[in-house]
Amino acid sequence: MSVGIGAATFIGLHVLWWRRTASNNPRIGLLCLLAIVGVACSLIVGLFFYELAEEALWALLWIDAFFVVLYLFLYAGIVRSVSLTLLAHLRQDDHRSIDLQSIIDEYSASARFEDRIQLMSESGFIQVSKEFVSLTKTGRLLAKSAKGLSRLLGTDLEG
Amino acid sequence: MIEIFSYVAMTFCGSVLLHRGLLSIRGCFRIPEQSKLILGVPFIGGIGFLWYLLELHFTEVFYAWPLTIRVGAIALYLAGIVVYVELRALLSRGYSLRIVIDLLECNGHLDIQQLKGNYGGGLSLSGLLVKRLKTLSDLGLLRFDGRKVGPLTLAGKACAAFAVFARNLLRLERVG
Predict the structure, then answer these.
(1) CA nearest to A96 within chain B
(2) Do the interacting molecules here have an ipTM over 0.90?
(3) Are A78 and B167 in contact (CB under 8 A)?
(4) Together in a domain, A6 and A71
């Protein structure tokens, strides 16, 4: 019950906030803050209404953490997944099959690549000057860390 | 609590190491990287192992960890697994991350059109889309024969409907 109240608070706040102030930025930092509010609500309900012992409060925190992690990744997918965008696009042509080249042309002509560039520029990873893009120190660090981590975990950085 | 936390950390590290080990030797057994076996064995096995550790404590010390504690420990372990799997997916398929890598491989400076054309170390945007369409087809969400895309399957329609609903609800206009 405590987990449910915490989750409802978090998701409710998230939906209300995002509907009131629409933005192209994923605002992950703000979402994490709202998640902390949700977890705090869950712990307060557990502590004062159900009088949970210390061990049970830890368990509650861990279950909350699991749902928060799951929700954050689900949200990241909803915001930035190319696959979901493709599915949503194909949904418009309900029973038909579409030529692959037309999908490629349409996607390439859209401003999605430039959106990513703008978002990374706002995050301080790259610098855009006229037609040129250059890596900042933070961006270089991110790229090098990603390369090292991918070697460690055995993944290919395919994109 | 430190004891339970250490059980979770130990099981998580063991599962990740086992997964990494299986990935290293998968070539000998001709198992594909995305095989459910490679992902499933260490992580589902980890849940069983963690449950066993908590039961072992119960039988040896005669102190019963309540069910909520055990469920909490499993949830914490699963949170770690979700982070690990998503981190791998981000490294493997991260769109923005790949742009940064491409820039690094071109001495950190490139024209936007060149960057777009050379995306993914020469994969290009068409390669990115074909890769995703193949994955969606493998997941049974749509039909794709290499030239024609669609129509969506029932599961694909459900996923698409959810995506459209969630994006509208959160007023996300410019998406991936």
Answers:
(1) B151
(2) no
(3) yes
(4) yes
Report the number of distinct structural domains present in chain A. 2
Nearest CB among A24, A62, A116 relative to B75 is that of A62
If you ran DSSP here, which 8-state letter would residue B108 be given?
T
What the block records as the tokens of A66 is 């699991």
Which runs of consecutive H residues, i.e. helices, occur in B26-66?
A: 36-61
Q: Any idea what DSSP says for residue B26?
A: G
Chain B positions touching A43 (Cβ under 8 A) are none
The nearest alpha carbon in chain B to A16 belongs to B170
What is d(CA A43, CA A46) in angstroms, rounded to the nearest whole number? 5
The pair phi, psi for residue A152, each rounded to 5°, is -65, -40
- State which amino acid sits at residue B114: Q
Mean pLDDT (whole number) for A137-147 = 93
Q: B126 is written with which tokens?
A: 């068409």
> B32-58 burial, b for 16+ CB within 10 Å, e for fewer?
eeeeeebbeebbeebbebbbebbeebe
Q: Where are the alpha helices (DSSP H) in A21-136?
A: 28-48, 54-80, 82-92, 100-109, 112-122
A8 with A72, same domain?
yes
The 10s digit of each residue's pLDDT in B26-76 is: 777 776 666 677 778 888 889 998 888 887 655 555 565 778 888 899 999
Domain membership of residue A151 as a residue range? 113-159
Q: Are residues A10 and A71 in the same domain?
A: yes
Interchain contact, B112 vs A139, CB within 8 Å: no
CA B69 remoteness from chain centre: 26
Name the minimum distance, in Å, from the CA of A6 to any CA of chain B: 15
DSSP state, residue B160? H
CA pair distance A45, A65, nearest whole angstrom: 16
